[in-house]
């Protein structure tokens, strides 16, 4: 697979030409068997209770419904567009002009629970998928927006954070590992 700037990885083949980064937050293959087995067992239970012509009905309804639910859970996309003079971060259906991007934090597996639990601001925008181990927290600089930051699941947090830092206004993101200093 090529790794050029317009191909963000997952779903790059159907990305718009002005998309710099795109990622579909799809459900991993290993998460499919358990819901399908559960739907099959539930259909078998219904089948045993109602034998006859309609015995096939629970299988015909529950298995496709389960597949649709799994596909729907993985429908969200994260993308960065460079459309003209106003590049934007899209997380699901929400979008944020990159001129309002402040500090960008990468949150790993170990800190994810804390970031989504006791440290989470109730006013924050969250696009979280439990099967994706890493997050990116994007602080907003828009004074008119009551949302303090966005928390977004991503499989490639360093790449997304790097793009956001590169497009953010100057001096809003400290370099990685840098500690804030006080000015006299």
Automatic annotation (TrEMBL):
Transmembrane parts of this sequence: 56-74
Keywords, alphabetical: Membrane, Transmembrane, Transmembrane helix
Designated name of the protein: DUF3093 family protein
Record-linked InterPro entries: DUF3093
